[in-house]
Known about the structure:
By secondary structure, this protein is an alpha+beta fold. The chain has helices spanning 3-25, 154-165, 172-192, 215-224, 253-257, 293-300, 336-347, 381-391, 395-402, and strands spanning 35-39, 49-53, 56-58, 66-67, 73-77, 85-87, 103-105, 107-111, 117-122, 128-133, 136-142, 145-153, 197-199, 228-231, 242-243, 287-292, 303-310, 316-322, 331-335, 356-361, 365-371, 379-380, 406-409. It has a 7-stranded mixed β-sheet with strand order 4-3-8-11-12-1-13. Strands 7-6-5-2-9-10 form a 6-stranded antiparallel β-sheet, with no helix packed on it. The two termini are 45 Å apart.
Amino acid sequence: MSCKHSKPYVLWLFVCLGLFFSIFLLPPAHALPARVTVQLFTFLPRIDKVVISGRCRLVPPSGNAVFGAASPVVFSQDPKNNSRIILGASSRQSNRQNSRGALCRQAFYLDTDNLPVQIKVLGPDGVSKTARYAGSLKIYATAGGIAIQNRLPIKQYLAAVVGSECPPGFSQSSLKAQAVLATNVLHQALKNSSDGCIPDSTQLQSFGGLDHANSRTIAAVDAVFPRMLCDQSTGQPIEVYYSSTCAGGTSDALKIFGSAHNASPISSKRGGVPCTYCQASPFYKPQIYTIDRYALQGKLGYQPMSIEARDERGRPLKIKIQTAPASVHDIKTISGYAFWLDLGKALGWGKIPGNLYDMRTDNANFIFTSRGCGHGVGFCQWGGEGLALKKGFHYQRMLYYYFPRTKIKD
């Protein structure tokens, strides 16, 4: 065989080798890391003190001490320099200490050797929260108080998210569906994160610590990880949404959230999908809340006037408001979802739990009637449980019902 005839075969060999390495040896574009970093207690406005109970050890560069379960470790912000943290626990240290005998650093790094420790945080006005975590911890100073990051194995994180998001007693099929959705949400969050750190609050998805992980949630994650819900045509993971109770049907993401959100296939119809399977939810029946109109205006900073538009499911899309009652020129419209979020922040999230709401006034008061719980887009958690119990759906069919034109892939 002459050289000029062998060149195409050599070229073809290199192409085949390149395909082999790209397909079989290189990780896929949507590969997930082994561990994740979570910003803890993000729902609190400020943290002034951190108390850790349990065995943990300081790791370089913050120190090398080992703390036992008998004596809690206390961290507080230095009152003379808010860019530093004081470690107030007594122990033998080989590190430089401040004048009061306590270690003082901008950040402290701890390792729990993956054994659970209890973290109690204290904020202004005596507000405190307690939860258990494992993995490594970073405790550091910010202008707004103390901050805590927890780095832990990804499956441990997902098992706790499933337990935080699903009511106790949900079927194993529902837990598996939630595990897939939680993996999608995590993938999207890591993709959008500039520093690889994600929040622990429902701003993303709830991560309440190890107390929310149990044998059933761990088994659910083990059974489905690392599967994700992907676009049927492109094979890429989609941006998913889920909420507790849709109360009759889900809505289209673009209509509820606006064009800033990904419109990847929530449903084959723009109106979402019908759902009559969440009737067992405690939020399915109407919830009524009444508030003095002037008190509401004081909390919101504006006066709601009327619902101007709704989607096919009845969820408000446009709300007319008046920012200055004395002037007709200060009348404008905001989205129904934005108004619902404002109500939650001003009144408390349990007062008007569902984004499927109505409002009326009797001149003295505003009366709100809401159905469901959550924004009502994507997967309905109580609806999925209803499909499992009433129709025997396994987790794949549950997900395909709420997300047509998708496919579950590893």
